[in-house]
Each structure stands twice: as C-alpha cells, then as structure tokens.
Amino acid sequence: MNPPDDLKRAIEAALFAAEAPLTLTEIMAAVGEAGDVRRTLGALADDYAGRGINLVERGGRWHFQTAPDLAHILRRDREEPRRLSRAGVETLAIIAYHEPVSRAEIEAIRGVQISKGTLDVLMEAGWIRPAGRREVPGRPLTYATTSAFLAHFGLASRRDLPGIDDLKAAGLLDPVDLAFAQLEVESDDADD
C-alpha cells in the first residue's frame, strides 16, 4: 500500500478539523488549491469506504460520518427530540419536492392552511430556509430545503428523493390517495 500524498493528507486534516461540512471551494482554500482536489476527494472517499468512518458528500459539502452499520454502537441515552406533526411532515415533503415554494402554494397542495409554527419548527430544525421572494404581486416569501435536511435524511442531493413508484413500493402512500390517482388516470383516458 502506497503512503498517501501530501494533498490527500492535507484534505483529510482539513475535513477532520472542520467544525462543519466543507464545500469544495472551502477545501481548496484550506489546502491552497494545490492539485486536483475533486479527484483526491473521490480517492479519499474510496479509501474510507468499508471502514468505521466514511467520507461523504451531502448537498455539495464534504464531511466524515460514522459508517451507517456501526451507528448503533455510538447511540447514547438522550432526550428524544420532538417528533414532527403530520402537518410538519407534509409541509417538509412539499417543500422538498416543489422548492422553492411559497406558503400559499404549500396550502394549495395540502388543501388546508398551515400555521406559522409549522414553518418555524422546520426552520429551527435547520431543514428549511427562506429562498427569496416571488416576482408577483405581494412578493410572497418562498422556502427551500437546506444541506442539513440532505445530511439528516442521508441524501446527496434532492435528486435522491424517492419517486412515486418508490413510495408505493414502500407502502407509504395512502390507499385512498392511490384510488383517487387511479380515478384521475381513468377519467383522463375516458376524455381522450
């Protein structure tokens, strides 16, 4: 086995010492942009694959994390965080799949009004953030997910969100919703 090169060691040290996950630009600034940092990150991720810790990229940010199959060893008794309400889960899902999305759009998709507290809880968790304002009358604020959302749910990017077929296969879709979706398809076919 060859000893690691200086760039690989520098990147490893920068990531280990970082208080939070680092972007490629932050890593390049830390190591002085010497060499092919992106390729070296890939090689480091390969080196750590199958070990007790892994180098992962989540939402464009790199960090070390405990190997998923060993997480049970590190669990400690701790206060269980509050679970999200059904409204919170639905709101988070709508934002994740439709971002950037305004409060009115969330309410239109859910079919009911949401309390400001629901958005506040999601922002306090660090899973959503304000994403600017729409260029329409009233200039409503829009919301989007954060890199903390991706990291918490183990996603590299929003493209990794499960599709409708994945959700059906996992049994996560309400049979009533599936029946309504089927009726819509059948009525569209009848109209043609």
From TrEMBL:
Any one biological process term the GO annotation gives: cell division
Residue ranges crossing the lipid bilayer per the database entry: none
Alphabetized Pfam families for the sequence: SMC_ScpB
Keywords: Cell cycle, Cell division, Chromosome partition, Cytoplasm
InterPro entries to which the protein is assigned, alphabetical: ScpB_csome_segregation, WH-like_DNA-bd_sf, WH_DNA-bd_sf
Keyword Cell cycle on entry: yes
Source taxon at top rank: Bacteria
UniProt key word Cytoplasm: yes
Family matches, as PANTHER family: SEGREGATION AND CONDENSATION PROTEIN B (PTHR34298)
Protein name: Segregation and condensation protein B
Gene source species: Edaphosphingomonas haloaromaticamans
